[in-house]
Amino acid sequence: MNSLKQKLKFISMKNYLKTILVFFITSISYSQYNSEGCLTIFSEEGDKFFLTLNGELMNDIPQTNIRVEDLDQPFYQVRIEFENENLIEINKDNINVIDVDDNYIDVTYRIRRDKNNSNKMKFNYFSESPKSEVYIPKENVHVIHFDDIIIKKSTIETTTITTVTDNIGVGANISVDGFNMNVSIYDRQPVVISQTTITNNTHGFDDFGSYRDSCDQKYEMKSSDFNAAVSSVKNQNFEETKLTTAKQISSANCLSVNQIIEIAKVFNFEDSKLSFAKFAYANCIDKKKYFLVNDIFSFSVNIEELSNYIQGKK
Fold it and tell me: Domain DUF4476, which positions (predicted)?
């Protein structure tokens, strides 16, 4: 009987420790996801503006509605200069992208003209919400990834000195009724020591206000976010809305060739596949493999049209 009780106690303890371990891992994953905030600023009257965060210019082409993602600092200095030089510039310190509990959030501010002075601009808090895993921007929203601003017309020479693999991990010791368990989670991260020289440092955007080639050799959309995005496209009832949703996703994220192919396969018609393949090319991280997209087409004429489009972009 005592032996049976001990076995039952051990099984119960084991299940308890498993529950704690799952909670521990989930907490780590959530904290990693919730380590960046988003800031949206829009002009109520449609006045176009340039946005600078912490001294870094966000847009070379004036916009009326700007969303900045990947903000990993709790507070930012904001400067807003208007295309209309008669409008007074706005300067604000300590604009927060965290809530009262220090969680990163999606916060929105509104610009509007002063009722008593049409040249004076007001900058007011508008709304905030918890971060969403997948954000699908409206057509008038100019999305910028703060850590993905490219340097155009720059010469970059990198000499790699050495590569060291380092163990980065977290651990915990759990003790229940004298039973101890050590839990350790390690992630081997390569640390590259390099020397970089950058000249002719100029921020650059294409004629549409988007980051031309900003996704080259960057990271593709996270698997969890991408799966949710594909589901969003599939859930649309009409081909046209599927295409619009897919383009919104592509304009706000870097995609791999395989991810672009997977989204394209959702469409029923080749015209939609072709339209999306053209649109997604700008934000593809591995353009050299774009020939793989040809496999989604049944007709050679569409392959030729896509090839001609890409050649025109080089």
Answer: 221-310
